[in-house]
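Project standup — Tuesday

K.O.: blocked on the structure for the chain from last sprint. Re-posting the sequence here as requested.
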Amino acid sequence: MVETRTFAQKIRSGSPQVGIWMQIPHPIVAETLAQTGVDFLLADGEHAPIPPHALLDILPATDRYTMPVLYRVAWNRVELIKAALDHGASAVMVPMVNSGEEARNAVSYAKYPPDGKRGTGAWRASNYYQEDATYRKNANHSAGVVVQIETREALNALDEIASTPGLDALFIGPADLALSLGMEPGQLTNELLDACRAVGAAAKRNGISSGIDVASMDYLPKYREFGMSLFTYAVDFGFLLDGGRAVSQDFKKAIATP
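H.V.: unblocked you, prediction finished:
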């Protein structure tokens, strides 16, 4: 798929990319978000009810608008990673990667031999095997792999993780990282800023990209200063809540006006 290759290349290039979190497992949501003008959607299979088989409905809706989908698996497991890629996800995000060995496993699950141990069977990604040879030839380069840095343990192994061949980006999960550091999520403390700076520096040293979920636009200049380029911002149900509340407030204000 052309959009898969292009998205992976954009991640590697370090050009700024922003995506929206998708946690509502419905193709109408996917099709609507695909028209927002962001660079990608992040379909969440870790903390939302979007298992890999849900991509069967979601991806045709996003493909219509050539919108890349970065799929976050529930855990660093081969059956989850290969299923997402076989369905045709543009890239995978693997949470809670804490060591070089875990990073190497994640990449291995996403790559065909000799670079990894992914089994052949990319039914939808290869257009139902009509383009299987071409898909397999390009897949090790065209499918992106992003790992999340979310613990103190991961911070202590940054270079070991970032130097993993075939890895495209480090992505900070700020809420879990804050918890691991003994802080409440939601505040960009000096300690968390130092951790973000260290992640960006490790990625740069090892020639890969870095990114983070952005809680506030006010934080973005600092993240860019750290060299980060892969961002997520906002979530589908948040748009529903914000839009609905705005309508409610506007209507109530209008009818209360003499």
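K.O.: great, moving the ticket to review. The beta strands are 17-22, 40-44, 69-72, 91-94, 144-149, 169-172, 209-213, 230-235. The radius of gyration is 19 Å.
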